[in-house]
């Protein structure tokens, strides 16, 4: 027997979503053309019927629509005059895509980010520093706006260098730092080089987003070692195409909890496109239950995850991603029969604080793919890392030493893999 509270929650969630579907089918030409069974949504009884009728959506499909109907494509449910916010994807896998939002959809995303802030215990009045350039990337704009709306003192770090940001964090006694996982380590590295004493900081937590790794224990240990053991790391997951999706699983040990009020998640085998069992690795597929102006149904994120389903303290369903985002399905490299993911290599490298930065080279040699690393490290650390990689993957991955500060540093998503 489903408890009355869960049954009421499930009914309210479905009715809200199907109401959005009814409105979208009348105004959104992109969804009408690709999702012909949308016209039958009045007959559906729940998400199972929706999943059976709706095809997957891919990034290539969205990008092609924008190329054929520039600049915004046809996945718009309203006239352009209704849209008030412009952003674009990072372009990690191709040309950046423009994305428009109405004020209502923007408020929906801010409410999602508010859940992230609540989980990270960011109280009204807290001092928050955003180490971010404030370009067209969506992520930290929504974080900044949600924190401001929550009543926090919000300090933007746009237009500043890393050393300037460090001094601002210390001078203004910031309590919460928002940045990518890579940049959290970069800030600590620059502090050491510039002789800036981080012992004087007032930070309680660093909220990370924008790349994988925020839930990896080795990364979290390295951050707390650099910034102080009293500091917490809170992982977060989202993307421009869908919005803020998940906050750190309660307990503070890494892992992510999807906001089920706002998203319908699935996990599939990337090759067979069939569901995988809980605990098995698969690709995350997301349907936005809000964001009506530019909706995305059954979107293949390309992110690899493992599901853990359960109940929260109030008895409502939870959908957790054990270990956070594990990697990307399109980033995998097969080396002598071994599936190698950037996130798994990064987890090994992060065990060595002596490695200041690294880069991975993937080369095709005949019919074989070879992988090697460049690392800013001592000879001893490079050899130890080489041994650890061999132990982890049963592969010999050579590690070549390079000079200090010879490899690129990143504020946003790191691009360490060269192919």
Task: Tell me the Rg in angstroms.
Answer: 22 Å
**Unreliably modeled segments:** none
Distance between the termini: 54 Å
Round the mean pLDDT to the nearest integer and report it. Answer: 91
The main pleated sheet reads as:
12 strands, mixed
Globally, the shape reads globular
CATH fold category name of the largest domain: Rossmann fold
Q: In the CATH classification, which architecture of the largest domain applies?
A: 3-Layer(aba) Sandwich
How many structural domains can be distinguished in the coordinates? Answer: 3
CATH class of the largest domain: Alpha Beta
Helix percentage range: 25-40%
Can you count the beta strands? 20
How much of the sequence lies in strands comes to 25-35%
CATH superfamily of the largest domain, called what? ANL, N-terminal domain
What features would you highlight for this structure?
alpha/beta; Rossmann fold; GMP Synthetase, Chain A, domain 3; twelve-stranded mixed sheet; four-stranded mixed sheet; 32% helix
Set out the fold topology.
Blueprint: H1 4-27, H2 29-34, H3 47-53, H4 59-68, E1 83-88, E2 98-102, H5 103-119, E3 127-130, H6 139-150, E4 153-156, H7 162-171, E5 176-179, H8 181-194, E6 205-208, H9 217-227, E7 232-239, E8 243-248, E9 256-258, E10 263-268, E11 281-288, E12 299-311, E13 317-321, E14 327-328, E15 333-335, E16 338-340, H10 342-349, E17 358-365, E18 368-375, H11 379-393, E19 399-401, E20 417-418
Parallel strand pairs: 3-4, 3-5, 5-6, 6-7, 17-20, 18-19
Antiparallel strand pairs: 1-2, 7-8, 8-9, 9-13, 10-11, 11-12, 12-13, 12-14, 15-16, 17-18
């Amino acid at each position: 027997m489903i408890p009355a509270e869960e049954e009421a929650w499930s009914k309210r969630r479905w009715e809200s979503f199907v109401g959005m579907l009814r409105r979208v089918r009348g105004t959104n030409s992109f969804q009408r053309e690709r999702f012909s069974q949308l016209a039958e949504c009045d007959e559906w009884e729940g998400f199972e019927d929706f999943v059976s009728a709706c095809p997957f959506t891919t990034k290539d499909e969205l990008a092609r629509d924008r190329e054929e109907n520039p600049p915004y494509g046809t996945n718009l449910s309203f006239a352009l005059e209704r849209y008030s916010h412009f952003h674009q994807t990072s372009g990690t896998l191709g040309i950046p895509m423009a994305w428009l939002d109405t004020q209502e959809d923007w408020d929906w995303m801010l409410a999602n980010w508010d859940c992230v802030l609540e989980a990270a215990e960011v109280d009204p009045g807290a001092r928050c520093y955003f180490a971010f350039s404030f370009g067209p990337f969506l992520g930290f704009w929504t974080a900044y706006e949600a924190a401001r709306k929550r009543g926090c003192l919000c300090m933007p770090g746009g237009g500043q260098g890393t050393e300037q940001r460090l001094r601002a964090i210390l001078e203004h006694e910031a309590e919460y730092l928002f940045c990518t996982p890579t940049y959290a380590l970069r800030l600590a590295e620059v502090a050491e080089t510039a002789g800036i004493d981080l012992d004087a900081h007032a930070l309680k937590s660093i909220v990370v987003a924008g790349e994988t790794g925020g839930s990896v224990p080795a990364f979290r240990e390295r951050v707390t070692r650099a910034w102080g053991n009293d500091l917490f790391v809170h992982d977060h997951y989202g993307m421009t195409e869908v919005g803020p999706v998940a906050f750190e699983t309660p307990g503070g040990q890494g892992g992510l909890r999807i906001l089920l009020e706002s998203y319908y998640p699935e996990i599939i085998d990337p090759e067979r496109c069939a569901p995988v069992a809980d605990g098995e690795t698969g690709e995350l597929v997301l349907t936005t239950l809000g964001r009506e102006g530019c909706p995305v149904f059954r979107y293949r994120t390309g992110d690899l995850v493992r599901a853990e389903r359960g109940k929260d303290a109030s008895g409502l369903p939870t959908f957790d991603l054990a270990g956070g985002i594990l990697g990307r399905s399109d980033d995998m490299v097969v080396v002598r029969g071994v599936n190698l993911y950037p996130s798994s290599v990064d987890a090994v490298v992060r065990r060595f604080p002596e490695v200041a930065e690294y880069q991975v080279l993937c080369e095709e040699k005949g019919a074989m793919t070879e992988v090697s690393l460049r690392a800013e490290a001592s000879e001893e650390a490079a050899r130890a890392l080489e041994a650890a990689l061999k132990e982890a993957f049963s592969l010999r991955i050579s590690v070549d030493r390079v000079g200090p500060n010879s490899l690129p540093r990143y504020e946003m998503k790191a691009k360490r893999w060269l192919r």
